[in-house]
Structure formats: C-alpha cells, structure tokens
Amino acid sequence: MPSLMWNQCLSVFSYTGLCQVSCFNLKTICAKSEGEHCDQSERNSKKDYTVKVTAENTNCCVNAVKQPDRKISLETPNEDTGEEGEDINAQTSVEMMNNVKDLASSLSGSSAALSGADGIKGVIVTETDRDDVEEVSFAYSSPNDSISIVKSGLDTYPRSITVSKEAFEKAFTNAKYVFAAVLRFPNFTRDELNSTILDNEVLAVDMGVNITNLTDKINIHFKNVKYDGIPSCRSWNSEGVRPHWIDDGCETVISDGSITCQCSHLTFFSILLTPLNETISIPDLNNLTTITQVGCGLSMFFLCIALFMHYLLRKTKATITTKILIHLLWAMLLLNLTFLINASVANLNHTVGCKIMAAAMHYFMLATLTWFAMQAFHLCLQMYSGGNILIKRYVLKVSVTSWGIPSLIVIVLLSVDKYGQQVIHTDEGANNVKMCWITDGDVQYIVNIGYYVLIFVFTFSTLVIILTWFFCLKKTNSESPQGNRSGINMMTVMGLCCLLGITWAFALFAYDELRIPSYYIFTVLNSFQGFFLFIYYYTNSNVKATNSQSAGVSSSSSNTTANTLGKGLSFLENPYNNLPAKKPQASEDG
C-alpha cells in the first residue's frame, strides 16, 4: 500500500494489525472490514472503515482502542431520573451500579457499552484469566461521547480512568468472576452544600467487591480543563439520600491545567470546585487555629474562675444582674468547650457523632447570642426602672426565653438534616481542616448571620444609649480624679462590648479584601472574650469597693452623688452587691 496522506483520522480499535479510522481525504484508499473497496458516497459519509496498518501509514493509528463487544441499555430502577435536565437521583445511581454487577456474570470474558436515561453512559469489562490480567483504561473525549476501552495512546484523550492491575488481583481473591465497570452520571444530585462539580460529572467505578488500600491507585485524569476555584478530588460511599463528598483516600494532583485524582478505593468520584474566596492559605489557617485554641483555653479558664467565685466564694445573695451574667458565662463556656473538641470529633468520620457535635455547638452559639440580647434588654430595663425591676419571676422568664429559642432552631435543623461534616479548604488543596457544622450554606447565612444581625441592631443601639448616658453623668461627678475615671471608662467600654457581643460584628465584614483581616480581628477578640469579661468584673469590683470606702467618710452631698451613679449605672458596678434603690426588687424564686 502506498504512503497515505491523511487529513484527519480517529483511531478507535487496534488488534492484530487492524485499525478502524475515519478518513476525510476523498483520495484516500479505504476498505471495509471484508476487504472491499468503499465508493465515494461511503467515503463522504465519514463512517468508520478498516484499513490495514503498514509501516508507511502507522501514523494514522494514533490510539489503540477496543470497542465493546455489545451494547446494553440500563433501566432506571424504582423511579425515573426525572425530566431532561433534572438532577439524577443519588440512590437511583447506586441501584444502577448494583444492576451492573448482575450483568457481569453474563459477560464472561467480554465487554459491553452501557447507556441509560439522561445521558448516563458507561462500559464494563470482564476478566477470566487471573494470570494474564493487566490494568485497564477507559477514556472519552467529551461528556456526550461514549466511554471506550483504551489499550494505548491514553494521553490523547482529555478524560480517562485507569483501573490498576493490583485492583484486579485483589478482586480475583474475593470473587469467581472479575469485572471493571465505569458509569458516568451528568447532572448528579447536589450535596447539602450545593457544591460545584467540575463539568457536572460524577464517575462511578466498581469491581463487584470491596477494594481498598491500593498502593497502585485508581487514576482519574482530566486533561486541559478550564475551571474557576480550587479543585479537590472527592469520593462518596453511596450512603444517604444525598451524596456526602469526602477527600479520604483520594489525592489531588494539579499540573499544567490538568487534574489527576489518585484514589486507593472504588466508589463514586467527583472533582469539587471550591470558590477562591472560600479558601484560606495554610499559614493563615495555622495562625488562626493557634490563636483560637489558646484564646478559647484562656477564656474557659477565666470563665471557670468567675463561676467558681459565684458558686463557692460568694457571701451575699446574687442580684438579678449577677444571675443573668452567670447564664451568659455558662453559654460562653460551653460554646468554647464544644468548639475545642469539634475538630477531634469531625476527624472520627462518625456521621451521627458529627451531627450531634454540630448541633451542640450551634445551640450554645445561638444561646450565647441570645444572652447578649438579654443583657441589652436587662440594661435597658434597669435604666428605665431606675434599678427597680418589679416583674415577677423575671429571671425565670428570661432564662426560658434565652435557652428555649435556640433549642427550637436546632431541633428544626436536626429534623431536616442540616448538620454534618464541613471542610475548611486551603488555597493549595492540602491540609484541609474538618469540622462538624451546618452543611447548607443558605441555612448558615439565614439562621446565623440573620439572627445575629437582628441581635446586633438591638445591642448596638443599647450600647450607644448607655455610653451617651454614661458620659452625660460623668460631667455631673467632678469629685473623682480624672485619671481614674479615664481608666474606668475604657474598661467599661470593653466590658460592655463583650457583654453585648458587639465584637462579633466583625464577622459581617468577612468579604473580599477584608475577609482575612476580619477573621483575625474576630478570632482574637472573641477568643479572649471570657478573659475580657473577667477583667471587666474584677476591675469594677475594685471600683465599687473604693467607692464604698469613700462614701463612708464623705459628706451627704457625696453620698447623694454616689447613690445617683449607683442607681443609674448599677450594671457597671460589682454585681454581688445590692443595687441602691428606693424600692426593694421583686422576689426571685426563679
């Protein structure tokens, strides 16, 4: 055969020196598989023809591809996948993979192309000779193409899956007949995080037996792909109504616009794309983690000291202000505790345990926010009543409200399965951190951000009113040294910000260029919130003692001024002393 000049040819099969190609040069001499010459109309149809490969035209056969022996249409079990364009049900895909296992027994030593509704395509290859087994590769050019069995020239395909020889050897030890099946699912059911999947493709790889801990791993290669975000190879163990993508057992290799997933097990696989503004650098993540752990530890230490003083060292009956403050300290203490142990629970990869951990931390966070609002409400009520709160069972009513509202929210989220394992991604795709938290981004914004915004509007308004009143009263008290009053004012402002949760507002600025600085400010201030509250309490306790001593030797005019300050700013003084008032407070049996 003379040397041939090919304008374009696509190799699809090569065994024993034969190659199927599509040739678009009308002068090309082509032949059917039976050896007959094809006429011009057949050449114009651009069908696949068989030509004999010689040394002169071996460049025509770029790839060696085996076409499956037969074609099989897969039925959608139980329920259809929905109308065209709708997401493919996750559990339906699992049942389809189980049906593929049943097909393997009837395909001894052969292969089949698989197809299903809504663009589901795949291929299955069976092996019978254990001594002659080799790795098998599957490839396709685009999401709409069928998946082929490729023997060589794999690099020319933009998408490929390679099942290693080790996987086949492990399969032979656990099964009489061995197969490798790949199914490609477009428009797969979204997970609870509504994660973005590269090209919206999910690949399922199965061999009929449990294959894990491979040293020669399964390779899934996406070549020359365009994407926005940080790619991360994930797998799903086929449990649950929605997929829960994890990175266990999979490594992500990114090189020159290509992504390779190297996985040590077989299951459902996808490449998730994390938006760039949702990732964090490894140094920043390590710094924030260290600051948080140290700060939470210190906060818990000082909160425990305050609670110890309240329950064991207190000599007088606690006031209403004290009781409300103690509730806030308990909520904050338990929030810090659940936060510190959260990552350890998440790393256990226990689904139920992680849900409970996420619900517990979310509950104490909402309880802390609610007690911030109750602190503001109590301060406003004190100013309005002049320190004389006559509401019956006041503390009981406040407590039921503050602990009850968060519990209702958490119960609702638990009932709709919104808690689970969350992953904090780094911009390098490595050293990601797991935690147990809300898995739905929309719920996160609506419940947490929305809830805090409502509380912040109320607490910040209260802070402005209190500070305005405070500075007005400051002008009326000219007897105290100016230096001391400046120090007291600064600690008062810091204490009030902690009491009312004002520092949490930095989370509202965590966007674009301000995201990382806001993280640092938010983490530092709130990690040490317990410490600030303790200093606030301790400093104002000393101020109260000093004022009491001064009041004993001062004139009646000084006593009147002190009483006025005590009546208006009782919440700035030692909460273990009775509020100066003309009328007694209502009895507290709550």
Automatic annotation (TrEMBL):
Q: Name one GO molecular function term.
A: G protein-coupled receptor activity
Record domain GAIN-B: where: 136-279
Keyword set includes Disulfide bond: yes
- What sections of the protein cross the membrane? 291-312, 324-344, 356-374, 394-416, 449-472, 493-511, 517-538
Q: Does the keyword Endoplasmic reticulum apply?
A: no
Q: Which GO terms describe its cellular component?
A: plasma membrane
Question: Where does the protein principally reside?
Answer: membrane
Q: Which residues form the signal peptide?
A: none
Q: One Pfam match, by short name?
A: GPS
In the bilayer, the protein is annotated as: Multi-pass membrane protein
Q: Which UniProt keywords apply?
A: Disulfide bond, Membrane, Receptor, Transmembrane, Transmembrane helix
Q: Which GO terms describe its biological process?
A: adenylate cyclase-activating G protein-coupled receptor signaling pathway; cell surface receptor signaling pathway
Cite the G-protein coupled receptors family 2 profile domain residue spans from the record: 288-541
Q: Which domain of life is it from?
A: Eukaryota
Q: Which InterPro entries match?
A: GAIN_B, GPCR_2-like_7TM, GPCR_2_secretin-like, GPS
Subcellular compartments = Membrane
What protein name applies here?
Answer: Adhesion G-protein coupled receptor G2-like
Source organism: Solea senegalensis
